[in-house]
Design a protein that fits this description.
Largest sheet: 2 strands, antiparallel
Structural class: mainly alpha
Helix content: 55-70%
Low-confidence stretches: none
Oligomer: single chain
Mean pLDDT: 83
Order of helices and strands: HHHHHHEE
Shape: elongated
Bound molecules: zinc ion
Distance between the termini: 39 Å
Strand order of the largest sheet: 1-2
Length: 174
């Protein structure tokens, strides 16, 4: 089964043009501090909406997650392979997701309502190779973390190395 991915072509040309223009103009002015702020507030808003995703963003939700993780790993210094111009575009997209008005720094042109989902789809399309590379790194990180877990001798639940007891409340060993 192939995963359905939102494409910029799914959006009407006006929305698409607005999204592309907003991303490009914003990315030109992004500073490192803006990337840090986009990462923090992006993560916060994502978590807040996770249990009640806006329907307009449902299709791009996983992609949005990847974009937020990408700038998060860039800011923390865990993954710095991504070129700056790519980081700026990702941060611009996240900034628009965070808020269409409130959190947008003054230098950013307000182009009216820009479709967040169209921006994410555009971002994923033009940055496909960089994002694929990041995703491969992220998956390897997660696999390594998973591999370093051991299992509870009693219930079989995975527990992180260094943690002696199982945290499963139903487990006798807990
Ligand atoms: Zn257990």
């Amino acid at each position: 089964m192939s995963k359905q991915v939102a494409s910029p072509d799914d959006f009407d040309p006006k929305k698409r043009a607005e999204a592309e223009e907003a991303v490009k103009q914003t990315a030109e002015h992004i500073s490192r501090e803006d990337v840090g702020e986009a990462s923090r507030s992006g993560e916060e808003k994502f978590r807040k909406l996770e249990d009640d995703k806006p329907s307009a963003l449902e299709e791009v939700w996983e992609d949005l997650k990847t974009l937020i993780e990408l700038i998060g790993d860039y800011v923390s210094g865990d993954y710095t392979e991504t070129p700056w111009n790519v980081i700026a575009i990702v941060a611009a997209t996240v900034i628009y997701f965070v808020s269409p008005i409130d959190a947008i720094p003054d230098f950013i042109p307000i182009l009216g309502f820009v479709d967040d989902a169209a921006m994410v789809a555009f971002c994923m399309k033009i940055l496909r190779d960089d994002i694929r590379k990041y995703r491969a790194w992220k998956d390897a990180q997660e696999a390594a973390r998973e591999a370093s877990r051991t299992r509870c001798g009693s219930c079989g639940e995975k527990i992180p190395v260094g943690q002696e007891k199982c945290s499963n409340p139903k487990c006798a060993a807990a």
